[in-house]
Amino acid sequence: RANSSSFDEHLAQPAPEWLYHYTTQVGLLGIVEEGQLRATKIQYMNDSTEFEWALNIAEKVCCDRNVPDLFPRRAGIANANIFAACFCENGDLLSQWRAYSGSAYGFALGMHASTLFRIFNQDGFQCGRCIYDAERQAQIVGELVTDSLKQRGELNQQAAFERGLIRVGTFFKHEKFNEENEWRIATGPMAITDAKVGFKPGQSMPTPYFRLDLGKARDSAIKHITVGPSPHLMLSKSSVAMLMHRHGLLPESIESQHTADVRESSIPFRNW
């Protein structure tokens, strides 16, 4: 696999203490009850250019470097089975409530980043912030080209470049999405027959996902939950506290942890 020192440095940057996963009521119940997060196949995410963006950059860089034969199998990796779970640095962001709460009543699951990364790094998954700057993306791909050309033989060079591109391209996003400050956990290429792969209903098609174990009870990465804008805020906070208590996410009584572990959005947004 080709490597990029710039990308390695990027992944090595420290994460914030907390990362937030926005979800719907159905998503909240599934995540807490199963102790799992569903990582979506990246081609099915809300960014319609997801991964395709990385392939476009790769083609351009290869042409600029006069090595177009280094990347002949674009179609072969365009549908790679890579799955990613997305997080935001901000646990109360209007655009996130609008985008990820299903146009209804959403929740932001506050997770301790170090716990998340410890869980998934040991499984060989990658954890890091998305890269939005096109020049930075081109630099990383250029380093992959240089490293690939060190291999002997054209087929080895092509294979090294493709594997490196799959690794870095998972974290490339269009600059228009930079407000999200997205961090993600990404798998490598997975077999669609893997036992942890499933399908869920999407807006217009079945969506493939991969189950990521978050840990159970107090070992879970979930440490607090923010209730999004709601017409029944106090009832919603109470039910979320009971849900957390039932599944061991609260250490003692509901009353003693209600304020600390169940929070409410401060945004005066009405969607009802």
Averaged pLDDT? 90
Give the termini separation.
Answer: 50 Å
Summing up helix and strand content along with how strands pair, one would put the structural category as alpha+beta
Strand content: 15-25%
Largest sheet: 6 strands, antiparallel
Low-confidence stretches: none
Percentage of residues in helical conformation = 25-40%
Counted by DSSP, the helix tally is 10
Nearest-angstrom radius of gyration?
A: 20 Å
The dominant shape is elongated
Compute the number of strand runs: 10
Strand order of the largest sheet: 5-6-3-2-8-7
Order of helices and strands: HEHEHHEHEHEHHEEEEHHE
Summarize this structure briefly:
The chain is of the alpha+beta class and 272 residues long. It has helices spanning 5-12, 25-34, 52-64, 74-77, 94-100, 113-121, 134-148, 154-169, 233-246, 254-261; strands spanning 18-23, 36-41, 83-88, 107-112, 126-129, 182-186, 197-201, 206-213, 222-227, 262-264.
Description of the structure:
This protein has helices at residues 5-12, 25-34, 52-64, 74-77, 94-100, 113-121, 134-148, 154-169, 233-246, 254-261, and strands spanning 18-23, 36-41, 83-88, 107-112, 126-129, 182-186, 197-201, 206-213, 222-227, 262-264. It contains ten helices and ten strands. The protein has 272 residues and is an alpha+beta fold. Helix 7 runs antiparallel to helix 8 (154-169). The protein starts with a helix and ends in an 8-residue tail after the last strand. The longest helix has 16 residues, at 154-169. A hairpin with a 4-residue loop joins strand 7 (197-201) and strand 8 (206-213).
